[in-house]
Design a protein that fits this description.
0% strand, 12 helices, globular, mainly alpha
Amino acid sequence: MKKFFIGLLKGIGYFGIYFGMQLLVTLVYSIVGIIPIAMKYTTRYRNVFEPDIFEQYMEEVIQVVAESAMPAVIISGILTIGLLWLIFVCRKKKFTQEICLRKLQPARIAPIVLMGLSLNVVTGLVLSFIPEEWMSAYEESSSLVMNGNAVLMVIGTTIMAPIIEEIIFRGLAYTRMKRGMPTAVAVLLSSALFGVAHGQWVWMLYAFVFGLVLVWVFERSKSLLGNILLHLSYNGCAMLQMLIPEDASETVWIVTNIVSVVVAAISIFWFAKIPKAEGPAVETGTATNAKISESVADVAEVVVENTDEM
């Protein structure tokens, strides 16, 4: 039970570092952007709290906060990776080894990329069956995030987010949880944390399911590179879909959805047929204890031999 809580606390701790850094950067970035707006309104109007004026003020503030989302993801991601690297250096541990950042077998690249691209479209297809009144908050949140700078949006969504989220949720949270609890529990808890990190309940739901897929890929490939590639492909597909004209015919979307479902099934089957990579992606607590016991036994044997010689 002690190992269980240690693993759980470590997983939550790494999530806390990720979430705390993102919250701090977002807060600082937003305040820097809001100050000029506040100064403009206080100098222009005698009473900023008049309903019409305050409503206009809040619209500008919300816009600034929304525009800070992508810069915050990029900056907080870089700072978080730097902080984690420093922590492991101070503990005299190799960061890339601790997060299972290993070489990915070339045979896995194509099915992983196809899986990410197709699953994103399949996710959109599933969401289309959710009642419209339930989707309003989700669409509002999405529009706020997607209305920022296009370049920053691509960098933040398709590059930085997949890297930092895979380091935190699979490379660190999942691996530490698995050392102290059954694998199934670690899978569910780490995926739940991944879902919670996405905030809005629709995002939380499909992020949880996607988290389960990511752990499966992680365990079969034994490399965090596979997860980053899958996550990058998944998020990148959302950017690619923005290139489709809004007035595209319904036939285009039907064909896209059908092809995506077929490709998703083929890529998952293809990836599953590739032999599982050798060596554990995560060293469990039992394996660690066994190694320690073996080392102790070796030392004891040497001591006994030396005693006999004396």
